[in-house]
Design a protein that fits this description.
This protein is 40% helix and 19% strand. It has 166 residues and is an alpha/beta fold. The chain has a 6-stranded parallel beta sheet with strand order 4-3-2-1-5-6, sandwiched between helices. The radius of gyration is 14 Å and the shape is globular. The protein starts with 6 loop residues before the first strand and ends with a strand.
């Protein structure tokens, strides 16, 4: 199903690691979303047509919303939801759960990697994203964690990377 050379994965921080990350109308979040939109359009215009996201709060869900909005302009693009474990969003705050449900409903394809949570499931999800793509768009603040690890792994594997600073 996936053409890895034309697939773009996303990585990025959850809202608590992004200044004003829970305030959708903040200048910081609006800037990040605008840069995500520009990066996604750039990838589409370069021939990419499949966008893979890990369904986490923050940057992942913003990217999913943007891809869904762009499908009306670029009907050839596809959105893939990569869920690390069943029930991932069960404890999301209500606003994020609504975003999750809307983005999930708009996915062209969804894969659930595990029936339940286990230590390392987010790392496994990030590895799946990288194994199924050659491009990566990252929303990154410079801190250690899963986003940095995914970026480092993408660098080692030769991904074409766009970093959006937050």
């Amino acid at each position: 199903m996936l053409n890895i050379a034309r697939s773009v994965a996303f990585t990025g921080h959850r809202p608590e690691k992004i200044p004003a990350g829970n305030q959708e109308d903040s200048a910081q979040v609006r800037r990040i979303k605008q840069e995500l939109r520009e990066a996604i359009i750039g990838k589409i215009e370069a021939g990419c047509n499949c966008f893979l996201r890990g369904m986490a709060m923050g940057a992942d869900l913003w990217a999913g919303e943007i891809v869904l909005e762009l499908k009306s302009l670029y009907p050839q693009i596809r959105l893939v939801g990569v869920i690390p474990f069943a029930g991932q969003a069960d404890h999301f705050p209500e606003p994020w759960r609504k975003k999750y449900d809307a983005v999930l409903a708009g996915c062209d394809y969804v894969t659930v990697l595990s029936d339940s949570y286990y230590k390392g499931c987010f790392r496994a999800r990030n590895q799946w994203l990288l194994e199924h793509s050659e491009h990566l768009i990252a929303v990154f603040n410079g801190s250690r964690g899963g986003t940095m690890q995914t970026l480092n792994d993408a660098l080692l594997s030769g991904h074409r990377i766009i970093v959006i600073r937050c």
